[in-house]
């Protein structure tokens, strides 16, 4: 599977979970997907939140990996 196809699948999965982040005043921007590593930028309330690491791994990464099994991990940049 090409990286472009993988990136589009990750982008769609992020769109599906975005409303939950927005509801809490945050958001996430997809920067790149390379070799199963998804790099994102946390925005809004998520950017300065002390719980951002938990949100990233416990919510974003968990749901992305369920939707796109090729995702190995998610990193905030």
Please describe what this structure looks like.
By secondary structure, the protein is of the alpha+beta class. It has a single domain (3-49, 60-76), classed as GMP Synthetase, Chain A, domain 3. 53% of the residues lie in helices and 27% in strands. The chain is built from three helices and three strands, in the order H-E-E-H-H-E. The protein has helices at residues 3-23, 45-48, 52-67, and strands spanning 26-34, 37-44, 73-76. A three-stranded mixed beta sheet has the order 1-2-3. A hairpin with a 2-residue loop joins strand 1 (26-34) and strand 2. Helix 1 (3-23) packs across helix 3. It is globular and about 35 Å long. The mean pLDDT is 89.
User: Major β-sheet, in short?
Assistant: 3 strands, mixed
- Binned, the helix content reads 40-55%
Assess the beta-strand content as a share of residues. Answer: 25-35%
Helix segment tally: 3
User: Could you give me the name of the CATH homologous superfamily?
Assistant: Fe-S cluster assembly (FSCA)
The rounded distance between the terminal residues' Cα atoms is 25 Å
Side by side, the strands of the main sheet go: 1-2-3
Give the overall shape. globular
State the CATH architecture: 2-Layer Sandwich
Provide the structure class: alpha+beta
N-to-C order of helices and strands: HEEHHE
Number of domains: 1
User: What is the CATH top level name?
Assistant: Alpha Beta
Radius of gyration: 11 Å
Layout: helices, strands, pairs:
Elements: H1 3-23, E1 26-34, E2 37-44, H2 45-48, H3 52-67, E3 73-76
Parallel strand pairs: 2-3
Antiparallel strand pairs: 1-2
Helix pairs in contact: 1-3
């Amino acid at each position: 599977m090409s990286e472009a196809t993988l990136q589009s699948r990750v982008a769609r999965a992020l769109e599906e979970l975005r409303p939950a982040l927005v509801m809490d005043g945050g958001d996430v921007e997809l920067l790149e997907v390379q070799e199963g590593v998804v790099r994102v930028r946390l925005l809004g309330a998520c950017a300065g939140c002390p719980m951002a690491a938990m949100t990233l791994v416990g919510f974003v990464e968990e749901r992305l990996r369920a939707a796109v099994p090729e995702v190995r991990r998610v990193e905030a940049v």
